[in-house]
Each structure stands twice: as structure tokens, then as C-alpha cells.
Specification:
By secondary structure, this protein is α/β, with parallel strands linked by helices. It is built from 12 helices and 19 strands.
């Protein structure tokens, strides 16, 4: 059973004010070519199909064209909603599309029935679990203790009654403990979203979305495929790929990747204004790429970004690195540590009330944060 594993398309995304739709259409064309050449049994899209819950008309049209071309290749397609998607909107018409081989996860309802495919080794059950939070799972398992995302996913998986004598795949969109973030992901509450990879032990392959860099977590069987495009300058040094997973007889899995070449890359350049505007410098640079420029001049250049766009039309960001900015950064060391919303609230509570929060108050706070994020 050969699978093409994709995730986090974020169709309709804007990066630093630039629409990525043209770049996304280009990379989806490349993916169609890969699918045509590889002839997989299934294509998996593990959430964050759109960049927002209410996508633009252009984003919807882009996805519609992509899915139509996949259906023309007679490949089974499995799609789940991520935290950026509206599960209700994405799954509209899903029962009608099943007949075309386009399978979209419905809104979570306490169970996830598998789609069963067959190959020369027998059956493969594919389970689709949309992005879930504890409050959603609690609704269907009121007698279970569900205080964390780990509890929620564990209970949801247990409710699937996955047969251990069959090969099984799950498509999920969660933050698995140990995954390395790029910085462009929307991990809402520091630490509380963590899910242990062991909750997926019953599956022969876990196709994950949510993290933007391709990586295995807790072994080869649990994998993030990453985004097909770079969506942040924190991803500049990443190579974007398509993941190809092949299930042979039960217990044997092989994973490989195929490079994705974007229409425009994302890169960083640094130097003085005179250096990076010199013909011999930009003659060696793909000037149409998305670029972050860091100027090393001690004095600010008037209208620098406007002038630089004459050479680098897709400049996304301009920074300075000089004596003044380094001095200012040194003063901020220690104040920029990343803290969760609960930690920040506790600090505010202590400052206002002159005492620390009780355990009961902390528990109430965590539930409120979880509820608010779930509603968003």
C-alpha cells in the first residue's frame, strides 16, 4: 500500500502581506505530477487544508481544482480538518464525494469509522481523526477523565476499537510531544496541546499534520510530512518534500521523500546597502524570491525598502543589524522568554493580589483557557 502524505497546505495564506495563492497553485501542480508518476493507492492530507475557517472564494476554487485532478487519477484521497479549518465547512458534501474516492472526515462525533482498502497483503484500515480538543471528546465520553489533549486523543483512539491483526493507518492533526517546531505553527497554549506518541501505538503508520517541518516523532511510524511551501523565515533552511510511505506485510514500513521545488523560494540576505545593491551581488541572487534583507549600515537608509524593491520586488521584511540594534537587543535578553498564557495570567494574578494562585484556581484557569481556545 503506497501513500502520498501531505499536510498544512494553508491554501489562501498570506505571508508578510503577500498572497501565496499563485505559489500554492504552482506547488499543487507539482504534487499532481508526483502523484501521476508515483501512482499511489492513496493521498492523505492531514489537516490545515485552508489557512482560515472561512476561506476566500479563490482558496476554495484552488482546492476544488486540486481535488478534481486527484479524482481523475483514480486515487483515493483522505482529508481531515486541522485547527485552521472549519470542520463543518470542510466536510460539506463529504458523503456525496465518498463515491468519487474523496473521503473527508466529518465533524468529530465520538467515533471514527475506517475506510478499508485492499492490497496483495490484505486489508488496510484508514482512520480519520480531525483536530480535536478535550471539550469535544468529553461530550461523547462524559464518564472518562479527560483533562488534557493527551487524554482526549487517547480516549478517541480507544473508541475506534482498532483490530490489532490488521494493518491500520490514522490521519491526525495534533502536537506530538518531542516534535520540533518551525515557529510558523499555531500552537495555541504552551505545553497543554502535547500528545504522547504512544497513543498511536496501535497504528502501523500515523500521518500527522500541524508541524511545518518534516520529521519522525518517536520512531518512523509516527511522522509529520511538513508544509509543501515555506511559510516563515524560520523555515528558510528547510527542504520541502512530499512523504511517500509504503506498507508491506504487517510490521514492515518504508518511508521516503520527494523534493518539492517552489516557484519562488524564501531566502535571507545580509550586508550593507551598497553591497546588496551592487550588480555583482544581485546578479548571483534569484531576485524574484521572497527575501528578508538585513542591512548592516550604522545609519538608517531613507525609504530603504522602497528602493530595494526596484531590485528585489518580493522583499518581505527589512531589518537592521548594527551597533544600535545589537545594543537594544541585549537590553531585552531575559524579557523575551516564551511563556504560556496560564503562566502569564498567574504572574498578573500574583502582582495584583500579592499572593499565588491556589491549585483549585489553576485548574479553573486551565479549563477556561481550553474552552476559549476551543471556541476560537
Amino acid at each position: 500500500m503506497k501513500l502520498i502524505h501531505l499536510s498544512d497546505l494553508h491554501i489562501g495564506k498570506r505571508v508578510n502581506g503577500f498572497s501565496m495563492l499563485e505559489d500554492q497553485a504552482f506547488i499543487l501542480d507539482s504534487i499532481i505530477s508526483i502523484v501521476s508518476q508515483e501512482a499511489p493507492d492513496a493521498v492523505i492530507i492531514a489537516g490545515d487544508v485552508y489557512d482560515r475557517a472561512v476561506p476566500t472564494a479563490e482558496a476554495v476554487q484552488t482546492l476544488d481544482g486540486f481535488l478534481y485532478r486527484l479524482s481523475q487519477l483514480s486515487v483515493q484521497v483522505f482529508i481531515i480538518s486541522g485547527n485552521h479549518d472549519s470542520a463543518e465547512r470542510l466536510s460539506f458534501g463529504s458523503r456525496l464525494m465518498d463515491a468519487s474516492g474523496i473521503h473527508i472526515s466529518p465533524v468529530y462525533s465520538g467515533r471514527a469509522e475506517p475506510v478499508v482498502l485492499h492490497d496483495s497483503y490484505g486489508e488496510v484500515g484508514i482512520y480519520m481523526l480531525p483536530y480535536i480538543c478535550p471539550s469535544e471528546v468529553r461530550e461523547y465520553y462524559p464518564d472518562e477523565c479527560i483533562d488534557s489533549f493527551n487524554d482526549a486523543v487517547r480516549i478517541a483512539v480507544n473508541g475506534m476499537d482498532v483490530p490489532s491483526d490488521r494493518r491500520n493507518i490514522i490521519v491526525a492533526h495534533q502536537f506530538v510531544t518531542g516534535a520540533s517546531q518551525s515557529g510558523s505553527e499555531d500552537i495555541s497554549v504552551g505545553g497543554t496541546e502535547n500528545v504522547d506518541s504512544s497513543v498511536f501505538d496501535v497504528f502501523d503508520y500515523t500521518a500527522l499534520g500541524h508541524i511545518h517541518s518534516a520529521q519522525n516523532v518517536g520512531g518512523e511510524r509516527v511522522r509529520y510530512c511538513g508544509t509543501p511551501l515555506k511559510y516563515s523565515f524560520s523555515e528558510v533552511r528547510q527542504d520541502k518534500t512530499v512523504t511517500v510511505a509504503e506498507l508491506h506485510e504487517k510490521g514492515r514500513l518504508t518511508v521516503s521523500t520527494i523534493p518539492l521545488i517552489p516557484m519562488r523560494d524564501m531566502r535571507e540576505i545580509s550586508g550593507s546597502y551598497a553591497q546588496i545593491t551592487a550588480r555583482e551581488f544581485y546578479a548571483e541572487t534569484e531576485t524574484d524570491d521572497y527575501i528578508r534583507v538585513t542591512l548592516t549600515d550604522e545609519e538608517a537608509i531613507p525609504d530603504a525598502i522602497g528602493k530595494l524593491r526596484a531590485i528585489y520586488p518580493n522583499i518581505m521584511r527589512l531589518d537592521y543589524d548594527n551597533t544600535r540594534t545589537r545594543s537594544g537587543a541585549a537590553e531585552l535578553v531575559g524579557s523575551a522568554e516564551v511563556r504560556s498564557p496560564s503562566e502569564l495570567f498567574e504572574e498578573l494574578y500574583t502582582a495584583q493580589n500579592g499572593k499565588e494562585m491556589t491549585e483549585e484556581q489553576r485548574g479553573f484557569l486551565d479549563k477556561m483557557i481550553e474552552k476559549i481556545w476551543g471556541e476560537q
